[in-house]
Amino acid sequence: MSSVDAHPTIVYPHYVRALDEEKAQLPSSFPREYSEEFQHILPKLLQRGFHILTKLNNQKGNLSNISKNFVLSHPHIHVVILRRALDGAVIYLAYVGSHVQGPSGFMHGGATAALLDDCVSSAVLLSGPFAMTVQMNVQYRKPVPLNSVVIVEGYVEQTNGRKTVAGGKMYHPDGALYAEATLLFVRPRLVEPKM
Ligand SMILES: CCCCCCCCCC(=O)SCCNC(=O)CCNC(=O)[C@H](O)C(C)(C)COP(=O)(O)OP(=O)(O)OC[C@H]1O[C@@H](n2cnc3c(N)ncnc32)[C@H](O)[C@@H]1OP(=O)(O)O
What we know:
The chain has helices at residues 3-21, 32-47, 64-67, 109-127, and strands at 50-54, 77-84, 90-96, 132-140, 148-160, 163-171, 177-186. It contains four helices and seven strands, in the order ααβαββαββββ. The longest helix is centred in the first third of the chain and has 19 residues, at 3-21. By secondary structure, it is of the alpha+beta class. Helix content is 30%, strand content 31%. A hairpin with a 2-residue loop joins strand 5 and strand 6 (163-171). The protein starts with a helix and ends in a 9-residue tail after the last strand. The model is unreliable at 1-11, 22-26 and 55-64 (pLDDT under 50). The protein has one domain: Roll (Thiol Ester Dehydrase, Chain A), CATH 3.10.129.10. A seven-stranded antiparallel β-sheet has the order 1-2-3-5-6-7-4, sandwiched between helices. Residues 11, 15, 65-66, 69, 117-118, 121-122, 125, 132-135, 162-163, 184, 186, 188-189 line the site of decanoyl-CoA.
């Protein structure tokens, strides 16, 4: 098996273990200027039935697969992950810093897509077997200012065999929509359970 083939099966158990081990803590290393905003928003998300899963930005040791995640390890993106058990929806409460710029003063569209993909993928991975994004359609509604807090929400819409349709939204904490996406995931044949 090539290293590319091995990747999904190695990463997924690490991911689940990381989420298990890192429950219920807001990262203590969050810079002061936005930790207050996080503290203000978090209770509202908890009221909606979400609970904090992880402080993945601070992973160490054998969780290196997580610490290399493009979005979660980005030095200018800080994420607290929450999940709602009722429907498996996932929220990334995120601060986007200065070095994710596309248009001057605003977030790069690719970074917006990456955050959406990662959040929606987490919702998919935590609700079912490993699957990979094979299609993603992003509607960019408003430019996302740099150095700001955003809420990203991911949810599974429908699973049919190896295919899962899922959706995501990125919005300002006041509810104004920045972007929304529809994604198709496919469970690779290679990691299907053997009967
Ligand atoms: C650390 C954890 C962090 C959590 C967050 C991580 C976020 C990362 C999310 C990603 O970015 S994933 C990386 C980007 N995605 C990829 O690299 C996937 C590349 N694609 C593949 O490797 C293969 O397409 C894949 C292994 C997913 C599927 O190949 P298979 O050979 O197993 O499936 P196959 O080609 O037989 O397709 C199965 C079904 O899906 C359909 N399908 C596949 N690709 C499609 C596509 N692109 N569009 C529409 N349908 C597609 C295909 O037509 C077929 O439909 P039917 O069963 O109805 O015939």
